[in-house]
Amino acid sequence: MEYVKKLIRDVPDFPKKGIVFKDITPLLGDAKAFARVIGAFAERIEGKGITKIVAIESRGFIFGAALALKMGLGFVPVRKPGKLPYQTVRESYALEYGTDAIEMHRDAVQPGERVALVDDLLATGGTLAACVKLVKRVGGDPIVSLLVVELSFLNGRQKLEGHEVHTLITF
Amino acid sequence: MEYVKKLIRDVPDFPKKGIVFKDITPLLGDAKAFARVIGAFAERIEGKGITKIVAIESRGFIFGAALALKMGLGFVPVRKPGKLPYQTVRESYALEYGTDAIEMHRDAVQPGERVALVDDLLATGGTLAACVKLVKRVGGDPIVSLLVVELSFLNGRQKLEGHEVHTLITF
Questions:
Q1: pLDDT tens, B15-55?
Q2: What does the pLDDT read at residue A30?
Q3: Alpha carbons A55 and A66: distance in angstroms, whole number
Q4: Is A34–B69 a contact, with Cβ atoms under 8 angstroms apart?
């Protein structure tokens, strides 16, 4: 993953002063790097009997949709509140200040379905932990989560104990 | 595309009263339908020398990223203002009331690159026309646009005269 890692760009002071943002857009623009990420994700779910890819808005859509196509699986979007048109389930999670929430369509995952969750970044783990809960709420089985980048100093894995998490690149 | 069309669900009164929203999530959840859409898009750009897929946040990411992977092309996200971390170009466009805007990274498309634009829906055409302008602003060549659904009664193609547009399903 050294080739891929070199295509992640540091952008200082985004989204606010003092934060160094890991910009994955150079990776996305490089067809070889993008294919390597999706190939690595595919290896990690092969043989697990996964039936749906659930991906988190909106960078998660990019990796999740490509993986769903490659593996011949259905794709499920998880979005910010008010974006999904049909009946939804919702989970809130804590931010540094206040709370946020995500939603999934109630009928997007059927009881017993084996789900792989996809997002670009594991930071504090709050969003991903909420997404795992959403899948369970509708009776699905959240088998594994796949993320491109892990910011290990934020200890996001602590929120995901007992859940299998794979990340490709760690900072 | 009859198989795909049946998986687009009408949701009345979303996002506001009187509007019937075309919900593509059942299509996304069906692996065969999703693959058919991406396959149809691939056919429409084959032989055109496309080098980048530019897709519009956030449902456009789902189709654009899968197409980029299938065709072995780089992927470029176009987003709402303030979401992209690096230097951007911006285009505003008119809404029913007021204006909105989209941004693209300045370095995401190189001069002379041949671009296919991807989104889920052609409605009034305002967002897509702005996206065509963004690609031109950085010196790229917007060759063709690919959209899953067209709401033909909104006459979106009027805003895109002289630009090649393909849609798969028309309402």
A1: 999 999 999 999 999 999 999 999 999 999 999 999 999 99
A2: 98
A3: 11
A4: yes
Taken in order of first residue, the domains within chain B and their CATH numbers are: 48-170 (3.40.50.2020)
Is B35's Cβ below 8 Å from some Cβ in A?
A: yes
pLDDT tens across B140-153, in order? 999 999 999 999 99
Q: Give A26-80 pLDDT, tens digit per residue.
A: 999 999 999 999 999 999 999 999 999 999 999 999 999 999 999 999 999 999 9
Q: How many whole angstroms separate alpha carbon B10 and alpha carbon B24?
A: 9
A48 contacts A159 by C-beta, under 8 angstroms: no
B139's CB contacts (< 8 A; 6+ apart) are: B109, B110, B111, B112, B113
Q: Which residues contact A101 (CB under 8 A, 6 or more apart)?
A: A80, A81, A90, A91, A92, A93, A130
With a pLDDT cut of 90, the percent of chain B lying above it is: 97
Residue A101's identity, in one-letter code, is: A
Q: Which of residues 62-121 of B touch A (CB under 8 A)?
A: 62-66, 68-70, 72-77, 79, 82, 84-86, 105, 108
Using the CB atoms, write b or e for A72-102: b if 16+ within 10 Å. ebbbbbbbeeebbbeebbebebeeeeeeeeb
A160 in Cβ contact with A33 (< 8 Å): no
